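Convert to structure. Protein one:
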Amino acid sequence: MRCRSVLTRVDALRTGELHADERGAVTEHLKSCPSCDASANDVDSLAGSLKSILPAPPRSCRDTIADWYEQIGDVWVGFSDRGLKMLYRGTYDDFHAAYTSRYCRTLKAGTLAEPLRKQVRGAVAGEGVDKPRIDWSDELSDLEREVLGTLSQIPRGEVRTYEWVARQVGRPKAVRAVGTICAKNVVPFVVPCHRVVPATGGVGSYAFGSALKRDLLRREGVDVEALEQLSRKHVRYIGSRTTKIVCFPTCRDARRIREENRVPFRGAGQAKEKGFRPCLHCQPFAA
């Protein structure tokens, strides 16, 4: 076998794809031809180098096409080995349809790891979750990631406005987009979109109904009735006559203000005109 014929077959020899009838002839030629043997070694080296720099295949190509689910109380929980992916109240069929529509993956019965179980139970019970373990492996925009991350920073027992969230993520005009992202939050309870309320007052709407939103906030320590009473009076902020600091009504600092020192404000401009400065904790109108 001539050198040119051998060189066209060395890669097939390396991968084991060379036909048995030709394998012996190519091997014998390489033993007797230093030039072709060196070329074969170069092919081996190049193949090894290419393999080392190739990116790992996407996770979706390596995994099975199924995630797991478990029912915790009246909440269906979809999850992967990376964390929680969906919390849903309703029928299993509706949950399964919503899950497969979003993730294009089927579901099979599984058992939540105990840390995830505690997060779900704690969130539903109003205990809150400090560091939710969420699988954000699906494609999210930068704004979606920032908004959902900001929701998790709202303290238990407090609420913020959609406007506040938009300012915190550096997009003060994206109030409507923030509302849409909150409405589409697939891991409610754990990522607390129920802690976001309209700037006009009240508790606002919720994917599972405003009654459940009120209940969740009450469990977390929010005085919903007082909040709605302030809303009817168009009061958005509460200031302290002694410290000249203004807060959201549910802020932990606002709750410490004595009744005789509480000053209601309908807007940021009114508070500023009176010489009040925004609370550093809740940042009512300063992001």
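Protein two, convert as well:
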Amino acid sequence: MIRIETIVCNMLEENCYIVSDSTNECVVIDCGAYYPEERKQVVDYIRGNGLTPVHLLATHGHLDHNFGNPTLLQEFGLRPEVNAGDERLITHVAHQAAAFYGLEINEDYPLPEHLLEDMETIRFGQHELEVMATPGHSRGSVCFYCQQESVLFSGDTLFNMSVGRTDLHGGSMMQIIQSLRRLAQLPDDTTVYPGHGRTTTIGQELMHNPYMER
């Protein structure tokens, strides 16, 4: 059985997930920790629970999901793993901060360790995450699906009763609708952990989300 710790981060209230199992290996998904206290919370949770982080995964390259990457490199030697479609985005977090929010960031952001491919398997402990390419919010958006536990980490592709915006560079409403149709094929009882907001299930979204259909 997996444990999922949610740490809500930065000014956009992004969900950073630390996912571990009984082996104490873990993956960090979308480390958006911007403020020092948020970064400390991430590090303290990992160390305080005796966890060994083996992957830093990014559902996409937008800054609010990757603010904390330098800390994960410094503390645990991890570099982000992201789909090739967002490789440029994730290496220009400081530029995104200046362009969108007028923030000046004076730290180096690590280059990706690995470029994720659709249907690739990410392993940690006794569990596996399947990479599902879900472009639309950005070119390289992906979700991570754990079939063993019926859990999906959906990034900014699917929210509770909503979907990610498609008006940013690289976004596409047509693509995100196609991606949602792919997610709709998952079992109804799949718990969805989104990039912002509260959890939901595939079944609930099929019933109530106007963007979802089979």
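The chain has a mean pLDDT of 96. The radius of gyration is 16 Å.
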